[in-house]
Sequence to fold (583 residues):
Amino acid sequence: MTKEELETTAFLARIAIGEDEKDKYLKDLNQMMSYIEVLQEPDVSSLKPTTHVTKLRNVWRDDIVKPSPKETVESLLNAAPDKEGNFYKIKKVIEAQ
Amino acid sequence: MEKILTLTIGEMREEFETKRLSSVEAVKTFYKRIKEKNPVLKAFLETREEKALKAAKESDERIAVGAQNIRALEGIPMAIKDNFMIKGEAMSSSSKYLENYISPYDADVIEKLKNAGAVFLGRTNMDEFAMGGSTETSAYQKTANPWDICRIPGGSSGGSACAVGSGMASCALGSDTGGSIRQPAGFCGVVGYKPSYGLISRYGICALASSFDQAGTFTRNVKDTAEIVSIISGKDYRDSVCEPNEYINYAENLNNNADILKGMKIGIPKQLKDYEIDEPIMEAFKKAVKDIETAGAQIIEIDAPSYKYTPALYKVIMCAEVGANIATFDGIRYGHRSKKGVSLNDEYAKSRAESLGYEVKKRILFGTYVLGAKNYHRCYHQAQRVRTLLINEIEAAFKQCEAIFTPASLQMPVKFGESLREESDIFIMAANLAGLPGITVPVSMSKDNIPIGVHFMSARLTDKRLFEIAGGFEAISGWKIQIPDI
Fold:
């Protein structure tokens, strides 16, 4: 992983990393790259990938609305760092040109 | 006092029902122990004495009315890992990100335990978001091993393992993504169990890696585990990977009878020989194998060459899933929000940077990298295929034997700041990769008086059988339930 790749990855992950931290991240992450190499070793081209181990498919439930108690809604909203009425308050998503 | 602290659930229930002991007395005894020892051991992040005593009093009232009112875990004092939601109470997953978080609802297992009458003593320390094997990545405190306070208790459920191992709780909940219950259980001298994937609902538990995560237990013996699992397992529509099981009584006919081992085939991986194993563990394991043979079991060698890919497989898949799961931590709906953000993206990035620990951020970055459009096929997709290879080999092994038997860890608990060898837990980690049930049973003490555990793993959804096998072994292991002088 190069410094540029680290910066791109950190942007994609939405994690701010300081200039002074980059060397440490690069050292550790480049060490972890060896895991990827190890996994190229076996020929698994004929095998299907395992996403999970259950044999369950299409887990449905009846499409019935179960209203949450008012207190649950309130406590969920109260957990927000910033809110207005029944909404979460966030910074502007689309910046004006 | 010591007697109350080491009672099994079954024994405690008998004490309650014969009125020799009340739940209030038991709970008070545990809090006395917590007040004395927790300042040194730091297993609990927070206790809840008032609430616990209220619940214990209610249990005592039910017991007084008579047998028909007594619930399955009536009045039993239990510790809860800090990643299970208890309505109206704090849950932090030992992270600064969730420092002020109050759970708006109960986790499914918490709901079930409350209905069964269990009394929660407090929340226990863990590695931040369960990322670690020593409980040292907690943003709050370092938990000590109760048998040697200079050493780690293991992790990530180190607080729960320590609480039960030191006699500060009679049982505890933990979560296990790559051995996080079964490794610390071995280090602290208690029974630790991870169920088959899909047996217990994860609703209301803070996620780490969703294709591995399972909730499980710490107890003093196998029967206690089976009793709790009978309560907390079962279908929950809120966790879509939950198996649609009807109620199963896992403790029924569980008699800790070594006769069950007669004629049974127990497999030992050939690959054990490829790794360095600490001397005390090797000695204890050899003796355990001999005991099992003496009990009439047939030991066979199984061959699963892909064990060697376990650390790599685990890291790639786990980090990918971490990267996806932690995306929910946006600092908008709950958790820490940076005051320094100048735009929405900047606010996300700074909120995480300020409140997450290095280990967590490193794993998110690696996960994001392996899931990147350019790398996905070579990294994540390839890992999922190698996972299939390992699963196929283990499934083939289960055609030759009923259980796979290994040490719970290849290494003794290290001192704070030292690292465990990466391969020390690969044989228990395989259970997460393949979705299998696994259980650590304490077997003996080293010369330095530190516990050693062994581990049984069986085929998927044969958890009841696994308890019978582990219970049978427990009957001949010679292990005596004990807590340390601290």
Summary: Chain B has 15 helices and eleven strands.
